[in-house]
Each structure stands twice: as C-alpha cells, then as structure tokens.
Fold this sequence. Notes:
The protein is mostly helical and about 130 residues long.
Amino acid sequence: MTQALNAVGKQLAGKIVxxxxxVLLVASLVTITISSLQSGLGILxxxxxxVIPNALFAVIAFRHAGARANKKVVQSFFVGEGxxxxxxxxxxxxxxxxxxxxxxxxxxxxxxxxIMQWIAPILxxxxx
Length: 128
C-alpha cells in the first residue's frame, strides 16, 4: 500500500515537472516567434531556474516510503524543499548576473513555470 502511494506521488511529481517544462518550451517558442531569440532564451532561463530545482525536489522527496521509514520520509521532504529553495535562488541570481537577458523576460519565465506548478496538480487530480 505505501509503495503504491509512493508510486502515485512519484508519478504526479513527474507529470508536474514534465508539464512545467512543456509549458516553458511553448512559452519560449512563442516569445521567440513574436519578439526575439534573446527574449525567448530569457524566458527559458528564468523557467529552468524553477523547473530544475522542482525536479530535484521530486527526486529527493520520494526516495523513501512506508510507515517504518516515516522519519526518513519527512526528513527527505524537508531536505528536498531546502535544496529546492537554495538552488532556485542560486540559479535565478546566476541568470540575472551572468547573462545579459532582460530581467523582465527571466522573471516572466520563472513566474509562468511556478504558476504551472500550482495549476498542474489540479489538472492531474483525476488521473492519479
């Protein structure tokens, strides 16, 4: 039973990350078409600074399952969230400092990706 719940959680996390990435790619391609390559790459960079930490969180958070491993389950969620927050901050700061992309495009990509992180579970609620 607990392995099944863990598998459902992993599956949902994978769907959320995949949806975030797909929406990010579409937003980048639309922006490249409408505006410029530089703007589209800015959206892609900003969005990846949310997708990559979220994927890493999913890997860390769903390492353990079961009642006997309940402390490890809780610990892995806290560690995963901490890693996610720190990595998100580092990637955003790097994207802002190292690239010459317009910060508006970077933050737009980041916001689109984070909003998809909130919406995607609702979309997949019945399928899990």
